[in-house]
Amino acid sequence: MNRRTILHTLMAVAIAAALPSFAFAAVDVAGVKFDDTVTVAGQPLKLNGAGLRTKVIFKVYAAGLYLTDKKSTVPDVLAVPGPRRVAITMLREVSSEEFGKAFTDGLNANTGKDERNKILPQIMKFGEVFAQTPVLKKGDQLSLDWTPNEGTQCYLNGKKIGELMPDLAFYNAVLRIWLGDKPVDSSLKPALLGEK
């Protein structure tokens, strides 16, 4: 091998070695990129897992769960301290009425009556969020952020929507829509728990 060939080989090896760090910088779910880390309330969060919500044969949205530390069980996710984020990117247009109904159905299926009664005012406020947005369009990004000592704040395409909901029990009830015993999508739950 001459010097030029050796140099080209070394460059190719160096580039190949560098590629995985770029390839894993984001997780791709149905064309939606989820960054490995995001910042919520000034704190870096790690992507715990990401997956696809389907209904019958339709791709509805891609969702990612961000936590301070990766967790693989539901009790650990619900108990994790610090901020959290659920990031959703719509893959098809859905009316807010349809999205709100799915939210309510998921909440009811995974939360007991007593717990629902305790967080009812916040559930009602969350319903008002959907009323403000008639349609969620393909490509819209919805974030549900939990900040300790503040509460749950919703964002649509980076803009705050709705009021702050202060109770951690409410945020955990929302998380159980995807992570509860009767998740809205049985394949999305393990994906958010980082099992896929």
TrEMBL record:
Superkingdom of the source species: Bacteria
Record carries keyword Heme: no
UniProt keyword terms in alphabetical order: Lipoprotein, Membrane, Signal, Transmembrane
Keyword Nucleotidyltransferase part of the UniProt annotation: no
InterPro entries per UniProt: Chalcone_isomerase, Chalcone_isomerase_3-sand, Chalcone_isomerase_sf
Protein known as: Lipoprotein transmembrane
Transmembrane residue ranges: none
Domain Chalcone isomerase: 26-194
Span of the signal peptide: 1-25
